[in-house]
Amino acid sequence: MDHIVQYFLSLKREFKLCEFVKRISVFGALAPCAVALMKFPLPGEFVVVYTDGCCSSNGRRRARAGIGVYWGPGHPLNIGIRLPGRQTNQRAEIHAACKAIEQAKAQNIKKLVLYTDSMFTINGITNWVQGWKKNGWKTSTGKEVINKEDFVALEQLTQGMDIQWMHVPGHSGFIGNEEADRLAREGAKQSED
């Protein structure tokens, strides 16, 4: 068992952690150990989370949007909920990231690797927000930023966090993304509170 723990401690990247879980899952009895290790990362290490948003009938009156946050297999923080307010895909993507950061902060997690298939969210928070703020929340063409309130909320949540924003191609077989997508779709089916 010590060699398994030493191997885990040597892991530095999320894909190696997934490989570790695959390897020890072969031994059946150790599979729960793999889940426990993914639930409780070492202090000071980056924690990996996948987020996704979805919206059926996007742009229409009967649109239904949901957000999904996936921390790992069987993780108690995995969640799929209905997006409150205006139902759009872009808002769902932003609010999925917001939910993950809220959850991380509640767990005293300060370092987060956030995987999303939304380049809009990544570009918005890492590149565009600063320019929008300087321009009085106007785009480069002088139009109002449509998702201003959403990006303001996201930016405020990122304060005091060390977040690495990572793009993952959607619907490409990446388990974390597929699970976040599944959770978002489940959330979209829920009633709006």
Automatic annotation (TrEMBL):
GO molecular function: metal ion binding; nucleic acid binding; RNA-DNA hybrid ribonuclease activity
Top class in the EC scheme: hydrolase
Protein's GO biological process: DNA replication, removal of RNA primer
Keyword Metal-binding in record: yes
Enzyme Commission number: 3.1.26.4
Domain RNase H type-1 stretches: 43-189
Similarity section: Belongs to the RNase H family.
Name of the protein in its database record: ribonuclease H
Species this protein is from: Ursus americanus (American black bear)
